[in-house]
What we know:
Layout: H1 14-20, H2 24-32, E1 36-40, H3 52-56, E2 59-62, E3 69-72, E4 80-84, E5 87-92, E6 99-109, E7 115-121, H4 133-136, H5 144-152, H6 158-174, H7 182-203, H8 212-229, H9 231-241, H10 243-255, H11 275-282, H12 290-315, H13 328-342, H14 347-357, H15 361-383, H16 402-410, H17 412-417, H18 431-448, H19 489-496
Parallel strand pairs: 1-7
Antiparallel strand pairs: 1-2, 2-3, 3-4, 4-5, 5-6, 6-7
GO molecular function, one term: guanyl-nucleotide exchange factor activity
InterPro entries: UPF0507/Ank_repeat_27, VPS9, VPS9_dom_sf
Protein name: VPS9 domain-containing protein
Amino acid sequence: MSRMSKEDDLEFNPFYEALQDKYGGFFKRAQDKQFLICIPRSSLLKNSIMNAAFIESHIFRPSPFFQGQYLTTDKASKGTIEYENGVIKTIEGFPKDVTAKVLYEETGYNKDYKPFSILLIDQLLVAPPKANNAEDVLHLKTSFIECKTFLMSFKEHVNILANINDEIHQFNTNYMILPGYLDDVETRLASMCSRATKAICKANKHPKKHDKRFQDNISNSVESYIVGSVHHKVFPVIRDELKAKDAALANRISSLDGVTGDQLGIRDEFICPLPESVVELANLDNLTTPLEKLMALKTTIDRLTEGVNTAVEERQNPTDKEQLCLTSDDLLPILVSLIIQSKCPYLESNLYYIQHFHWSDSSKDEFGYILVTFQAALEFLNSTDFHNLRPAKQKLNKEVGIEKILEIASKDNEEQANQNAANIHPIQLSRSEKQLERITRMLEETTAEDLKYKDEYKPLGLGKPTRYSGVPDVIPLQDPSRKREQLGDFLSALQNDGFDTCSSDANSSPFG
């Protein structure tokens, strides 16, 4: 692998910037799960839009089936790549065959000090959407970096931005925020944003300057730039002012640890894991501007709705005439469950920050219902008496992930030693019977633990979600000539612990 040039410094790479900023939830999940992150070099990303689909198409998890292969982390795991000797090859699930050279590999470490890999590659695995100038200036900017870049892209803004920077510096250096005077801070910053927006709109020479969408984009960008620049000074004061509410909410959430979705009143049809929504909400404190926090709340609800609807469709009988529909009454307890799972420590402060330091009328009108929905969820959470909850429903988890089975298969010797302690008669069993016995005991343990998935997830109950999908919907087609030593951990474990009762009949099953 060649040495990374200054041009390909990750700190200036649009993909890496978007991954750290706008799509921080993807980045956090990739770190926690030790995924492989492939970052195209900067020169490939000019005039490109970094949307969620493009970002996710370059993040991979190890294949449980074949060593050296990786699957995309989207719900369907539809893409497969092979990484070997500094070269990445797309195998299936991509628009075209791509062979990409790895220019640089960097090892990062997550919060548990476990390594994950970041690869800088010389080819795009999937082409990103392109933005021409006319479309880009009308595209809503939400993050601090996006808004700053947008405002600085017009040379006629240079002097005005210099004046804005002076005002921001004066505020951060000399203005003292006194307890109980947040209203004064709000008024001062709103006035600063209003003056700056008028000055920039007047100076701007873009052909779209009279388009309301362009004007709204300018207004939102100025607000996000100014408020984002003083966030480090203002938000700690908001947290201090609302620390009693945040603490009360944290205590309530802590007291509900272990409560399941059905106990909160979620209909059985709508109970399903929603890890993407939880990760999005848990990342709220890492965002800077009120607008991007508001958009994160919107994304949380969007992914919640999409996840529940997908689960309902998968479970529903095609012959059923009545279609289940997620109503606002159904949404509330599900959102409460997500709030409990995300354990966002300053949710009350974040809602106050959005409500009082976001003044743009356009996005307020469009996304106002999002803020109201979260406020209603907090009211439900704070005012409901949870002391007399009905018993949680005990349900057998019939869907066992590959990793769980692998864990069982790899503990053959340990479980053999524990047979006497478990009051299992020490008779000689065939290997297939041992496998069946281990899987049966695992299922029983899962039931007894009330569907606690350990490090995977709980079904809209509580706990930290750390995975999204256990097994791809369709096992990727593989070359039958692949060598045995190329098998991944899962298949190797089964092959090494072969079923001595398996017949040569292709239709026979080792599980009877």
